[in-house]
Amino acid sequence: VGAGPSGLVAALALLRNGIPVRIIAKETEPRIGERGAGLVPRSQGLFHLLGVL
Protein backbone atom coordinates (compact mmCIF):
# COMPACT_ATOMS: atom_id res chain seq x y z
CA VAL A 1 0.00 0.00 0.00
CA GLY A 2 1.05 3.60 -0.36
CA ALA A 3 2.56 5.63 2.46
CA GLY A 4 -0.09 8.35 2.44
CA PRO A 5 -2.81 8.68 5.08
CA SER A 6 -5.25 6.32 3.36
CA GLY A 7 -2.58 3.73 2.66
CA LEU A 8 -1.33 3.77 6.24
CA VAL A 9 -4.85 3.35 7.62
CA ALA A 10 -5.41 0.46 5.19
CA ALA A 11 -2.10 -1.10 6.26
CA LEU A 12 -3.02 -0.82 9.93
CA ALA A 13 -6.42 -2.43 9.35
CA LEU A 14 -4.85 -5.26 7.35
CA LEU A 15 -2.13 -5.87 9.95
CA ARG A 16 -4.67 -6.00 12.76
CA ASN A 17 -6.45 -8.73 10.81
CA GLY A 18 -3.28 -10.80 10.38
CA ILE A 19 -2.59 -9.83 6.77
CA PRO A 20 1.03 -8.87 6.06
CA VAL A 21 1.57 -5.60 4.21
CA ARG A 22 4.34 -3.72 2.50
CA ILE A 23 4.32 0.07 2.58
CA ILE A 24 5.82 1.71 -0.49
CA ALA A 25 6.69 5.42 -0.62
CA LYS A 26 7.13 6.88 -4.08
CA GLU A 27 8.98 9.95 -2.85
CA THR A 28 12.56 9.55 -1.67
CA GLU A 29 12.42 12.47 0.79
CA PRO A 30 9.69 13.74 3.13
CA ARG A 31 7.64 16.71 1.97
CA ILE A 32 8.33 20.06 3.57
CA GLY A 33 5.44 22.00 5.07
CA GLU A 34 2.11 21.24 6.61
CA ARG A 35 -0.32 18.78 5.06
CA GLY A 36 -3.59 17.58 6.45
CA ALA A 37 -3.77 20.19 9.20
CA GLY A 38 -7.15 18.96 10.39
CA LEU A 39 -9.20 15.80 10.64
CA VAL A 40 -12.83 15.53 9.65
CA PRO A 41 -15.09 13.79 12.20
CA ARG A 42 -15.38 10.69 10.01
CA SER A 43 -11.60 10.27 9.96
CA GLN A 44 -11.42 10.82 13.70
CA GLY A 45 -13.98 8.04 14.19
CA LEU A 46 -11.95 5.67 12.03
CA PHE A 47 -8.73 6.51 13.87
CA HIS A 48 -10.51 5.96 17.19
CA LEU A 49 -11.80 2.59 15.98
CA LEU A 50 -8.27 1.57 14.99
CA GLY A 51 -6.84 2.76 18.32
CA VAL A 52 -4.74 5.55 16.83
CA LEU A 53 -6.51 8.33 18.76
TrEMBL record:
- Asked if Flavoprotein is a keyword of the record, the answer is yes
Keywords in UniProt for this one? FAD, Flavoprotein, Oxidoreductase
What GO MF annotations does this protein's record show? FAD binding; oxidoreductase activity
The FAD-binding domain sits at: 1-52
Check the record and name the Gene3D superfamilies matching this protein: FAD/NAD(P)-binding domain
InterPro entries to which the protein is assigned, alphabetical: FAD-bd (IPR002938), FAD/NAD-bd_sf (IPR036188)
Spans through the membrane: none
| Pfam families for this protein | FAD_binding_3
| UniProt name for this protein | FAD-binding domain-containing protein
